[in-house]
Amino acid sequence: WYTRGEDRCRRDAEWFFEIRNLEPWADEDELAMEHYLRQGFEKWGTVQVNDRDKLIIYKRTGNHQEYPTQASTDGLPTWRYEDYAASFDDNALADLPLTYPSVDPPIANPMRVNLGDAITLEGYAIDYEKPLRPGDNIYLTLYWRAQKPIDKSYKVFNQSYFGDGQIVAQRDGYPVCEGRETWRWDPGELITDPYVIPVREDAPDGLYPLYTGMYLEESFDRLPVLDESGAEVATQVHLTDIRVGEE
Questions:
Q1: pLDDT at residue 94 in the model
Q2: How far is CA 14 from CA 32, 40, 226, in A?
Q3: Residue 5 pLDDT more than 80?
Q4: Does residue 102 have a pLDDT over 70?
Q5: What is the rounded CA–CA span in Å between residue 220 and residue 9?
Q6: What does the pLDDT average to over 113-137?
Q7: pLDDT interval class at 108 (50, 70, 90)
Q8: From the CB of residue 172, how many other CB atoms can be counted at a distance below 10 Å?
Q9: H or E element: which one contains 30?
């Protein structure tokens, strides 16, 4: 089973697929899956092969169950593999998009910002519908590069605010949809890190700065922004300004 290169992001996923192969899941994988599904997922449907459930489909509903994988599948929609296999294969194409780039992509807005002599923010790309309205999403991609091996797991913050810190839009998360923690980065490798940032439903019209940066979740200590001399100049990077509402 595969999803033909559709964008996947654990942080914002609406759907989750549990595959039941001949080999059982490792205990740690079972625990990790259960922990993730507790974040508001419920069983939604099944795909059967030879009348046995082989793919369990979960949907994020906001209902936080204690053991979502143990819930019954009775009464759920069911699809038989045999009814769909031929049409699925007939429509499969060779030119599937990659879920992660194999070569360094061009960076729309290069920056090269030094964070703590550990990580370089190479730049970013941003996209959103204009005019931006409360409840809309901002699509931000950050490009990072480790300067050296990193022994800590830094979390990324993306936030836009005004006044004394009233948030207009925010999304925090570990890099690459929680899938590439900083301690796993190879020095020199370009990391492509996407975020979907929701604008608050009560955001007032106006022009607001958008910031990013990194911090340790256990202490909230931020990686400092350093200038060319190595002096600390900030604790966050000003990417651009976003406008909510008409200009």
A1: 59
A2: 17, 10, 38
A3: no
A4: no
A5: 24
A6: 97
A7: very high
A8: 14
A9: helix 27-37
Give the distance from CA 66 to its chain's centroid: 24
DSSP of 45-102: EEEEETTEEEEEEEEE-S---S-GGGS--TTS-EEEHHHHHHHHHHT--S-PPPSS-S
* Separation CA 193–CA 202 (nearest Å): 27
Give the count of beta carbons closer than 10 Å to the beta carbon of residue 189.
Answer: 12
Amino acid identity for residue 96 in this structure:
L
Domains annotated for the chain, with CATH where assigned, are 15-90 (no CATH), 109-244 (2.70.50.60)
Residue type, 217: E
pLDDT: which is higher, 87 or 57: 57
What local confidence, expressed as pLDDT, does residue 3 receive?
A: 66
Give the C-alpha separation, 25 to 138, whole Å: 36
Summarize the confidence of residues 135-140 as an average pLDDT.
97
- For 150-169, the pLDDT digits (tens) are 999 999 999 999 888 899 99
In one-letter notation, the amino acid at residue 115 is: L
Residue (of 203, 204, 224) closest to 215 by Cα position: 224
The residue count of the chain comes to 247
Please report, as a single letter, which amino acid is at residue 203. A
Whether cis (ω within 30° of 0) applies to the bond prior to 131 is: yes
Token output for 112: 């090269």
Q: What is the mean pLDDT of residues 43-51?
A: 94
Q: Please tell me the distance from the alpha carbon of residue 202 to that of residue 206, in angstroms, as a whole number.
A: 12
**DSSP for 145-166, written as a single string:** EESS---S-PEEEEEEEETTTE
Residue type, 137: N
